[in-house]
């Protein structure tokens, strides 16, 4: 069986992936010898060799669970040659050997790949914006490298985390925690100038939290906050 999770937002892809794994395994599972993940990380493309390694790991029967899963993240990076090399594996996939491709848009996969899979389109949870689930660990991971990203990458993240009030406030809380940790280090190391700067940054973050709590435009508030933190 092959599933294709298609959405431009990785957060929604991960939510759908988590739900799908729960369905396949019948329980929450994150670390298992029967979960094989191909993640290109900083690579611009996924080639045949990487795909072959994944296929090799999927050759045998499940080791621990009743099903094994091969996951390809950022599947839009698969070269055409790599996608063609997967066709036989996808055809031979079964209820006990499942492939999951996470992609920003299903049209970035060859028609022959799309025809072999069930396409899932993850959406925001219904029932009001306050009920949209927030994966705090994802936001913590984002904050670890946020200030090292380019302005375009930062504003793309802001657009994603301005979807609703809960997500925006969680983003701000993560930013505040990062700044407080830096402040503690500055004080410990006697970095007066840096500690004063981080104190001012914390004031900016607090004002932004107040604006979002008061239902001001979330995207504009977060963008203005980041611009102030860059000065």
Question: How would you summarize the topology of this molecule?
Answer:
Layout: E1 2-6, H1 10-25, E2 35-38, H2 48-57, E3 68-72, H3 80-92, E4 97-103, H4 111-114, E5 118-120, H5 136-145, H6 151-160, H7 165-189, H8 192-213, H9 218-230
InterPro entries: DNA_Rep/Repair_Clamp_Loader, P-loop_NTPase
Protein name: DNA polymerase III
Pfam family, one: DNA_pol3_delta2
3D structure, described in words:
The chain has 231 residues and is of the alpha/beta class. It folds into two domains: 119 residues, 3-Layer(aba) Sandwich (Rossmann fold), CATH 3.40.50; 102 residues. 53% of the residues lie in helices and 10% in strands. It has a five-stranded parallel β-sheet, with helices on both faces.
Quick one: how many beta strands? 5
How far apart the termini lie comes to 51 Å
The helix content is 40-55%
Tell me the name of the CATH class of the largest domain.
Alpha Beta
Total of DSSP H or I helical runs spanning 4+ residues: 9
**CATH homologous superfamily annotation of the largest domain:** P-loop containing nucleotide triphosphate hydrolases
Q: Please identify, by name, the CATH architecture of the largest domain.
A: 3-Layer(aba) Sandwich
Strand order of the largest sheet: 2-3-4-1-5
Mean pLDDT, nearest integer?
Answer: 85
Shape: elongated
Q: How many distinct domains? A: 2
InterPro entries: DNA_Rep/Repair_Clamp_Loader, P-loop_NTPase
Organism: candidate division WS6 bacterium 34_10
Protein name: DNA polymerase III
Question: Which keywords apply here?
Answer:
231 residues; alpha/beta; Rossmann fold; 2 domains; five-stranded parallel sheet; 9 helices
